[in-house]
Amino acid sequence: MTIDRRFLLAGLLALASCGSGEKPVFEPLDYDYLTKIKLDAGQLDIDDGWVPRGSARHVEYLAPSRPLKTLRKMAEQRLLTGSMTGRAVLTITDASLILNRGRFEGSFALRLELFGADGNSRGTADARVRGARVAKDDEDEDATRIDLDALVRKMMEDLNVEFQFQVQRAFKDALQSTDTTAPAPEAVETQELPTTPGSPAQQPKLVPPPP
């Protein structure tokens, strides 16, 4: 998969600002341009209650785009519901960024579960990606933000691909088309029949379309 030009542009803008002595500027992350995933469900719930755990040095709060908010935004922009019944639950199970021995290490994970109208589970899809980037200077705030921004962007790019693959594999029969250009049904042609005194009212006659 080719690297998105948005990813390259954001990195160049950040580096240029840093080199000129100005504060780096980071382009907001957005996934509205990606293919939508339309689910056979009437309701979508997003569980973003994940919190950092363990004794590792978590640095999620230093990233220009916080992983938890970014993952939720991606889900909101890509997932659609297309039915009147059933429920889909998207859970953010990991949104961690840690500093470990001079490297920033990330782990992002999502779980999507579908429930039928009867409340029974129709299956789950799990997607996880990991990434790492050498910290140029973990004592410098701007350098840290540039490194974390680049890491989050790359991991989100990978996660979008992995998430779509896992969802399509797990829910082959529960995905709906998002194509809005489907052809309209052919019009029914009619032909009037001649009437004679006492005959019934004119009725339309179906005429097959030409070959």
Task: Describe the overall structure.
This protein has 211 residues and is of the alpha/beta class. The protein has one domain (5-176): Rossmann fold. It contains three helices and eight strands. It has helices at residues 5-19, 67-78, 141-170, and strands spanning 37-39, 44-47, 57-58, 79-81, 87-100, 103-115, 121-134, 175-176. Strands 2, 3, 5, 6 and 7 form a five-stranded mixed sheet that branches. Helix 1 (5-19) runs antiparallel to helix 3. The model is unreliable at 182-191 and 199-207 (pLDDT under 50).
User: Runs with pLDDT <50, length 5+?
Assistant: 182-191, 199-207
Biggest sheet layout:
5 strands, mixed
Helix count?
3
* Gross morphology: elongated
What's the CATH first level?
Answer: Alpha Beta
Cα radius of gyration in angstroms? 26 Å
Order of helices and strands: HEEEHEEEEHE
What count of structural domains? Answer: 1
Just name the CATH architecture: 3-Layer(aba) Sandwich
Strand share of the residues? 25-35%
- Alpha carbon gap, first and last residue: 44 Å
Structural class designation: alpha/beta
Topology:
Layout: H1 5-19, E1 37-39, E2 44-47, E3 57-58, H2 67-78, E4 79-81, E5 87-100, E6 103-115, E7 121-134, H3 141-170, E8 175-176
Helix pairs in contact: 1-3
Summarize the structure.
With 211 residues, the protein is α/β, with parallel strands linked by helices. Helices cover 27% and strands 26% of the residues. The chain is built from three helices and eight strands.
